[in-house]
Amino acid sequence: MNDILRPITADGYIGYDKFNQLQAVRFENGSMISWIIANPLEEICPICDRGWDLNHTSIKDQHYWHDRKELTHESCFKRYLKLREWSMFFNAVVECNLAFPGGLKEVKNEYGAAWNLPWYEFTWKGAETFTIVIGRRKRVDHVEIKAPTESYPGLPSLDYRMAEKCFSEEDVTKDFGPTSVMVHAHTDEKLKAYLKKFVRILGLEKPAEKIAE
User: Fold this and answer.
1) Is the CB of residue 35 less than 8 Å from the CB of residue 2?
2) pLDDT tens-digit profile of 144-160?
3) Measured between alpha carbons, how far apart are the two ends of the chain, in Å?
4) Superfamily, domain 78-201
5) Which residues of the chain have pLDDT under 50?
6) What pTM was estimated for this model as a whole?
């Protein structure tokens, strides 16, 4: 990369090179790393409705939102994605029409993609022994039932054989065993459908209401 010839921040970490390209630099392990960035100083973030300040921390906090073709703060965009995913997962669980008293508990993203957005876990009332884990993994949603790894008398077992039957026609990544039933959902609708299959696997499916004659 080219050297910064016309800095615009007091510390010299943001500035223009000889080709009039705006560059940002940082130092890592004794080496300087630089990259071309957009100038956001006259832009307004569509998420927070605020602009950028004239310092390297603020100017580097940028993300190009391709769908809208405009700049946002990267920090704002991450919060937006997190809230959007939480809302989608929450509504999918609500559609199962079962109580989940602890709500969605934020847990570590076991895959680590998409800016490390969190995964979530919850338990359904009536099947508290089992934990349901849902989270984004690349272009799919990871959906899993986790059973305790240690057994003791009276502990309900995970009916993974029934899970194999429930998902036999689903051509997706899936794995079934006595301590885990895992499947990947490729769409929001599939996520909802798979959670409803989990309801059946855990024996929580409500009997059909009798129609009065």
Assistant:
1) no
2) 999 987 766 667 889 99
3) 80
4) Transcription regulator MotA, C-terminal domain (3.90.1150.20)
5) 209-213
6) 0.83
